[in-house]
Structures are given as C-alpha cells and as structure tokens.
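Q: Sequence in, structure out?
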Amino acid sequence: MFSRAINNSTKIALSIPQFANELFALTDQNRSMLRQWLPWLDNTLEPKDTRNFISQQLAQFAQSKALHTTLFHHGNIAGVLAFNSIDSSNKTGHIGYWLGADFHGKGIMTECVKDLMEIGEKYFSLQRFEIRCAVENTKSRAIPERLGFKEEGTLRRVEKVNELWYDHVVYGKLTNKLAPH
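A: Exactly. Output:
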C-alpha cells in the first residue's frame, strides 16, 4: 500500500476500504462543520457509504484519473487529501481536502498539500495544480494562499450545498516545468 511520511507526526496513505469505519466516524463527528461546504455529506450516512466511495476512488486511481489519500496525524485519521481528478492530457491535478476540526490550525493540511503537489509532479508529470474553494470558506482558501497559488478568478454559482449556491475562487499553481507551447 502507498504510504508517505510528511513529518514525524503526519503521514498520508492511499485510501483503502479498511479505513472506512474510522474515516466515517471522523466525518460523522465533524458533520455540522463539513455540511456547510461539502455537497456529498448528506449522502454519507453510514460506514458502507464511505467504503463504497473509497472503492470508487481506487478504481479511478487504477486508471490514473484520481488519487485519494487518508491523512493520519499521530496515528489517527485526521482527514483526506486528494487529486479529485487528474487531467492527464493537460497535466493538471485538481486538489481537494478536508480536515477534522480537532486538527485545524496546526499547519497539517498546508504541509500535506505541498507534498501532494510533489507526488503529482513526480509520479503523474503534472505541470499545473488547481484548488477551488467557496468564496466564504476562509480556512480552505488559506491553504493555496500560503502555498503561493495565484488567485485566477471567481466562478459564480458553481456549487449547490444545502440549497445554497456558492461562488468558487479558483487558485492555480504551475510547476517549474515548461510545457511546450
């Protein structure tokens, strides 16, 4: 199984069905916080929903179309980090993440996203990374801003969560590789 140490206390691992119960428990524990931003939450009602999602992600990974990892901090599942999609034609990785509330404010996700970009560049030959966040989601927006992503614009009413429409800020970051013109 793919696993990678970020530092002495944090690692990421390829999400596998064996993580489903603990990951669902973290999701359920943080449901009220996550529900504001994540449209899939109301369809994740029991561990089997998480297990099915992980199985779908593994199928996407097998085709090099996505990479879903589980984030561990001091041995406990703390959240997830993913290339929600990998556009191999354009060498672009679309990054998504969430972290349990007990793990906020420690710089964990910033370090992990930075590492995920290294994985994307080395193993998927990605030359561009993109993160989209709801305009109002300041905690999520802080990560690309800390990592030197460029704010590229705002997409209006692109995601409906709990009957509310959200605008998304699009952040992009290019690698040092020069792509042919």
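The two ends are 37 Å apart (CA to CA).
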